[in-house]
Amino acid sequence: MFYFITTLRHPSNAKNYQSVLNLLKNTIESVCSQKTQHSYKFLIVCNEIPDIKVDTSKVEFLAVDFEPPGEGAGSKLSFESVLKDKGTKLAAGLAWIHQYNPSKVFIIDADDWVSRDVVEFVNSNPEVDYWHVDTGYLVNLAEKKSTRKHGLCRYCGSTYIYNYHKLLNLIGYTGTLNQILSQDQIIENIDGFGLLYLLGDHRRQLGFFHRLQEKIIPIPFKAICWILDTGENHSGKTGGSDGVPITAAMLNEFGIKSFDIPDRKATLMEKCKEFIAKTTSRIGWAKTDKTAEKV
Predict the structure, then answer these.
(1) Strands 2-7 and 104-107, how do they pair?
(2) Out of 178-182, 203-207, 286-290, which region has the weakest mean confidence (pLDDT)?
(3) How far apart (Å, rounded) are the C-alpha atoms in residues 274 and 270?
(4) pTM (2 d.p.)
(5) What is the dihedral of CA 104, 252, 25, 143, to 10 degrees?
(6) What are the distances in angstroms from CA 132 to CA 57, 110, 215, 220, 270?
(7) Is the sign of the CA dihedral 26, 180, 158, 220 positive or negative?
(8) What is the 3-state secondary structure (H, E, C) of the chain?
(9) Which residues are registered as beta bridge partners of 2?
(10) What are the C-alpha distances in Å from 278 to residues 67, 206, 269, 285?
């Protein structure tokens, strides 16, 4: 079983919780559009199970009784409190899905879109334990524009796929499996680095794998749409203004059906700006030290 796992922020920490759920609906639609005969499921770890319709054969909610990570919403929360909340929720999810004997786990953010080919590709290469997303799209949701992007694992939380059992070892998890644990129990039974910087964050992963001399391979196609300018991004980043209008072909590639696209084609100026942004991204990623502690 291939598992996608995401976390939802506490309702108290959202600027507009309905907006958070609307973004989640797009993510669910994208994840559940995989073109494969292989079994897969999507686990959403949350504080309250939302009242939205899902295909229960593919989507499962896990409610945890964790306190809000602090006061405020979005980028007003401290970075470490966000990592702790996300890390403990993901650890709870990893423990819960043990009963289903998962093979691979793709940790994603609850507002990003996933290529329809991910499950088929990863399951067709079972000998590879770890994958990361190199290329994809930056999507400016407000302007409905997309930009091709390289080195997405530097920016986006939807970029690492793991061998499930090896991931438990990597994060030093010693807690009870198949059960819902309290946040304090999770913290007591997991390595601090694994909690904050493997589950909670994504900037230190490539360097970590290098130090372990573990092979991690880039997925050889555009696997993720990194969604920005939603009003709910913790990073507060916008970006993507130099992109081109989102196309029906791109939405189909990521399984998105319920999204209105601009009724116009890209101008020559937009195409040139997008090409420059893509090329700059590619050069920047090529120059990046992938073995650094923080990539």
Answers:
(1) parallel
(2) 178-182
(3) 6
(4) 0.94
(5) 120
(6) 27, 18, 11, 10, 29
(7) negative
(8) CEEEEEECCCHHHCCCHHHHHHHHHHHHHHHCCCCCCCCEEEEEEECCCCCCCCCCCCEEEEECCCCCCCCCCHHHCCHHHHHHHHHHHHHHHHHHHHHHCCCEEEECCCCCEECCCHHHHHHCCCCCCEEEECCEEEEECCCCEEEEECCHHHCCCCCEEEEHHHHHHHCCCCCCCCCCCCHHHHHHCCCHHHHHHHHCCCCCHHHHHHHHCCCCEEECCCCEEEEECCCCCCCCCCCCCCCEECCHHHHHHCCCCCCCCCCCCCCHHHHHHHHHHHHHHHHHHHHCCCCCCCC
(9) 40, 104
(10) 40, 22, 14, 11
Q: Are 114 and 265 in contact (CB under 8 A)?
A: no
Q: What is the pLDDT of residues 32-56, one digit of tens each?
A: 999 999 999 999 999 999 999 999 9
Q: How far apart are CA 167 and CA 198, in angstroms?
A: 9
Q: Which of 27, 1, 24 is nearest to 11 (CA)?
A: 24
Write the single-letter amino acid at 184. Answer: D
> Within 13 A of 100's CA, how many CA atoms are on the CB side?
21
Write out the two tokens for 292: 């650094």
Q: Residue 156's closest CA among 114, 211, 102, 97?
A: 114
CA distance 81 to 62: 21
Nearest by Cα to 132 from 116, 152, 149, 103: 152
Q: How far is CA 151 from the centre of its chain?
A: 14
Give CA angle at 220 (214, 224), nearest 5°: 95
Structure tokens at 113: 């879109």
